[in-house]
Each structure stands twice: as structure tokens, then as C-alpha cells.
Amino acid sequence: MISGLAKAWWGILHSQLRLEATATKNFATTAAIGTSLQGLAIDSRFLVRTIGTNSLGAVLFSTLAFFCACYQVDSGKPHAGRLTAFGTLRLMQLDTTLTNPAMNVDPAYSCSNASVTSPLEQEVDCLTEALSFKYEELSLIREFCQRLDLGKKTSTICRLLLSELHGCIQATTLAIELDAADDGDRDDAYGAEAIELDQGAAELHLHGDEIEASRLRWIVDAAIRQRNRVQGIREQEDCKHEDSQSSTITIANHLCLDGELYNAIVVPIERGGQTLGRMIAIRWQNEDEFGTTEADLMRSTSMMLGIHLVNQRQYDEMQLMFEGTIQSLVSALDAKDAYTCGHSSRVAELAVRLAGRLGYDEESLQRIQMAGVLHDIGKIGVEDSVLRKPGKLTDDEFEQIKIHPVLGFEILKGIRPFRKILPAVRHHHESWDGSGYPDGLKGDAIPRDAQVLAVADAFDAMTSNRPYRDGMPIERVLKIFAEGRGTQWASDVVDELMLCY
Ligand SMILES: [Fe+2]
């Protein structure tokens, strides 16, 4: 797409500038292919010399160079492409970008011989600088978006954003302050102009020099007061209001606190009319003032952060709802079979412990924890008289009990997040020698999660007290496991159990 745009711009340029044939061929090739910014730089020097009296041509050239710079970045060399692009865009720096002797540049085209002092060239420089900032803004948003991940903690995302932003904005301190998500007085608190960091802030993330929260609060409040004063004066003078979007961004320079001067930008982090927090940039005394360029950059990134925060909070709510669903299922089972109340939670705890020793990663640990909690959920479908029978079961009753892994499988299989635990739920009563149920799987054919669950399940069943019997002593339980190692249970799982006790 970029090369197409480059061709289109080149067509306009050609009619505007009437370039020499040789240069036309060289430049058109470079722009169309867009693979060499250094090549573009060579031709751009010629163009600068050629279009010296044509401001429209200068604008077109700057735009074309910007598109080609984008193309270079899209080709897979973001930082190198970016730096080269800026070097190319900034006409004053053209000579410093041309270091390849193989290009055999005609010295007559060199920009260093021409002093950039005319109003037109200054205009071109300003335009290219503005394009550079816009390009920087787009690059920052793109890199930030690539790193957004709902699985990451908000604090991690904020630190990433501040780090990326610090590469674009020269600030002494950058801060992201997030308001509490579950504030009962949320609307009132968010609507307030005065910012109370110690009351409403849930999180405060800093990058750069450390600053006390009280000092940060003073600077933010002072910045907003200054903005309100200036805004009020403008409204009186102009008898008109600024648009609501721009009025929420605060740029305040020369704020004096304890003899020190501060420059600050405060940008709200918003989404759907709701303020989620604010982004703050601070420069201390003897540093440049902030301007709209930095504010625009912060506004763009704060918008992206606002979208992410809303998505993150919805994701967290869904996660809570999911966990609540699991707990409801477990509670239903505990209510049905009071004898084994708490069994599922204990099995899950021991299974996670064993799995951790066996080298499970974090995601797998979460999976087996869920499987442990829900492994006996199929018992909901077993008759109460069988499930609650205190004495020994008849063969017929035992056959009824044996269907609970399949029932659990059938109950959970229709819910997508539970699909990953289905093998463990279905096969947690399989035996290593193939004598288990429901499918008589043998050895490594038994899913690994089910192997771990089988050990944890049996250990808890043997050691826990029931109303009709006491749990076995641990020594006897371990002796049973030693005898069943490699016949009923997986040997390495039993070994880890032995090491735990
Ligand atoms: Fe079971």
C-alpha cells in the first residue's frame, strides 16, 4: 500500500517539479520499491535543490519521505528504519545519513553546501519535524499495542507504557495514576477536578526520577488550577468555550514549589465517558517547557491504555464469574455428599503440589488445580442412597459409583473453558496396570493430569476422617502407595508423594 501511495505522490511531484530524466528514474524506482531509505536520501538531496522555490513540492516531498519511512519500518527494521527515516526527513541532517561510499553521490547534490536559512526551507524543516513527531506517535502506539496482553498485570502494562513513552518524551518523571475500580463513590470521585492521590488512587506507577506522592499531587493540582485560570481568561476574552476534549488535557509550565520550577502535563485516562486515572509528565527546573506535541503523544497513549484497562477489568470480571461458577458446582457436590465435604479442595491442593514438583509450568498448574476441584463433579448424578452409604458398597452400588467420571465428563464438556480438564476428570480412576475405570487405560496412555490426580485423590481418601471411620495413619498410607507404585499409580508421581511426607 505504501509503495502505491509513493507512486501516486510521485506522479504529482513529477508534474510539479519537472525533474531531470535521470533523477526521475532513480527516484521513482526508490520510492516505488521503498527498500532503501539511503537511496531515498540521495534523491531527496537532489529534490531539495530542485524544489527550492516550490513550497507545494516541499510538502509533497516531505509526505512522500514519510510514507517511505513507514514502508521501511514495515519491512522489519523498526528502530533502524525510524532513525534513518528521521535522519532523512530532517533536511539539515541529510549529509550525516549518507555514509555509504558505494552510492557514489554527486557532490553537487549535497545539501551541506546550501545554508538552510530561507523561510521556505525553514518551513520545510518545520513540516518534516511535525511529521517526525507524528511518526513517533504512530510508532509508539503500534509498539504499545503489540505488547498489550490481557493476561499481563496492569502494573506490567503501565511500566511498559511508561518505558516506551520515556523514549519519546524527555521528562524528569512520568507517572500513571489509576483510580480504584471498585470505588462506591466512583462517579463523584472521577468527576472531581482536584486529584487526591492518597484517597482515590489505587495504583501509582513512576518512571524516571522518584517523586513524593504529596509533591506529585501538589504539581497536578497546581497544573489544573493554572489551566482553569488560563481557560477562564480566554473564555472572558473570546466569549467562547474550548471543546471538551482539549479542556481535559492540562499543559502547565513554570509551576513554583519550594523555590523549584516545574513543568507538567496531565492527561486523563478515559474510556466511554469514565475517567480511569491520569497520565502525568513532569520536568523540573532548567528544562524545556512542555507543548502540544508531548500532550498529543500522551493523549494517544492514554486512549490506548484506557481501552486496555476497560478490557482488562471486563476480563477480570469474567474470570471472577468463571471461578464463582466452579465454586458453585463444588458447593452443590459438597451439599449432596456431606461425607466428602472438602475432599475436592484438598485433592486440588495436593495435586498442584505434586505437579509443581514434577515440573508443571504455571498454566498447567492452573489447569490441574481446576481439575482437582472438579474431578468428582459427576457424583452429582449418582443416587444419594449410594453416595451417602456409610458401609461397604455392593457390586451393583459400586457399578453406579463407577459412572461418575463419565458423568463429570458429560457435565463439563459443553463448557469451553472446562474442555482442557476433561481428560483428567474422565480418567482419574484409571490404574497404571490397566485395571481401572472407565476406559481401562494403561501406563502412559493415561493422561498425565489424571496420573497426578489419581495419587492425590487416593491419598486424601485414605487419610481423611469420615463419620463412619477414621483416616489411616500416614505410615500405612505410604506403605500402600509403595506397594502400588508402578501397578496402580505412576511411579514418579508416587516418588514425589513420598518426598512430600
Ligand atoms: Fe472420583
UniProtKB/TrEMBL annotation:
It comes from the Bacteria. Residues 340-462 form the HD domain. PROSITE patterns: HD, HD_GYP. Signal peptide: none annotated. Its EC number is 3.1.4.52. Pfam families: HD_5 (PF13487). Residues 318-501 form the HD-GYP domain. One of its GO terms (molecular function) is cyclic-guanylate-specific phosphodiesterase activity. SUPFAM superfamilies: GAF domain-like, HD-domain/PDEase-like. Keywords: Hydrolase. PANTHER family: CYCLIC DI-GMP PHOSPHODIESTERASE PA4108, CYCLIC DI-GMP PHOSPHODIESTERASE PA4108-RELATED. This is Cyclic di-GMP phosphodiesterase response regulator RpfG. The lineage of its organism: Bacteria, Pseudomonadati, Planctomycetota, Planctomycetia, Pirellulales.
